[in-house]
Amino acid sequence: MSKPRTQSSRTAAVALGAGLLLTAGGIAAQSALGSAPTTTTTASHGPAIATAAVQPGSTNTGVPAGTKLTIHSGDISVTKAGTVLSGLDIRGSVLIHAANVVIKNSIIRGGAAPTHNHCILVDTDSKGTNLLVQDSEFAPTHVNVYQNNFCGSHFTANRINSHTGVDTMDINGGSVLVENSWFHGTTHYSVDPNHGGGPSHNDAIQVTAGVGIKIINNTISGGANSALMISQDAGKVSSLTMSGNYIGEGSCSVRIDDKPLSGMSGISLTSNRFSKDQTISGCAVLMTMRISYSASGNVWTDGSAVAIKRYG
Q1: pTM for this structure?
Q2: What is the pLDDT along the chain (312 residues), one digit of tens a residue?
């Protein structure tokens, strides 16, 4: 899916100051946030597990079991460097406008159904460098053809559980590390205005630009289009590594297309494992002829070698 990602100004956002820690036990800097919410929820799935030897899934991604979450209603706009958001159940979107922000042990659900392309976490501001998101869940409550989950660049995502949106992650710039996370359950629409009224091009992870992207030890289940879609719709892509992932579904699970530019280099696929559930039989990886890549150790779940298909 190659539609642009823009964030709506739907509700008054909350500006958070440097070094703030928002936890289930209380909310710091009440002058910035107003009254602390009193309702709490509790994460119910298993504990987070950092080891890369374990396949990411329901028991080791997202908010650790037993974490008490404080509900925050409305959007949060982070404008001060060093802000930490922790232990929150956010019934709105989060917009990053500062460096070195941390989001952990939290759920982001978004707000009302959007009326144009929208992400529930947006990190596209040039000031929003070095974002860390870990042990958190992206679970949009109101999903339609415009709703996506985590969009941006210059971030690290570790042990996140992202699901339900049309796309569950959109990477549109470089310096990205995605690891030990679970992307699944994308939503498909047979009529999507972003594609001239045709069907949605839903992807678990979509890359449209970026130099220096690492996608390592994740479980990535595709939508109707792909599990992992890489193109150059927003700019050059190079130095992109996919290693140790568990990948399945989609028409072809991984599709790499150099459009609208010509050529792409530095693509590496190593030790990825593919399930045989693509709608195009046997199509684990499909890429255009103009792409320069290296590949080794990519296998189906039965241990047989994966063949990379080329076209164009």
Answers
A1: 0.85
A2: 434 333 333 333 344 444 444 433 333 322 233 333 334 555 644 333 333 468 999 999 999 999 999 999 999 999 999 999 999 999 999 999 999 999 999 999 999 988 888 899 999 999 999 999 999 999 999 998 888 999 999 999 999 999 999 999 999 999 999 999 999 999 876 656 665 776 567 899 999 999 999 999 999 997 788 999 999 999 999 999 999 999 999 999 999 999 999 999 999 999 999 999 999 999 999 999 999 999 999 999 999 999 999 999
Range of the domain at 130: 14-311
Would residue 5 count as lying in a domain? Answer: no
Q: How many domains does the chain have?
A: 1
* Residue 6 in domain: no
Q: Is residue 8 in a domain?
A: no
**What is the secondary structure of the chain as a DSSP string?**
----------SPPEEE-TT-EEETTEES-HHHH-SPP--EEE--S------TTSPPSTTTSSSPTT-EEEEEES-EEE-STT-EEESEEEES-EEE-SSS-EEES-EE---SPPSSSEEEEEE-STT--SEEEES-EE--SS--TTEEEEEESSEEEES-EEESSSSSEEEESSSEEEES-EEE-----SS-GGGTTS----EEEEEEEEEEEEEES-EEE--SSEEEEE--SSS-EEEEEEES-EEE-SSSSEEE--TTSS-EEEEEEES-EE-S--SSTT-SEEEETTEEEEEES-EETTSPBPPEEEE-
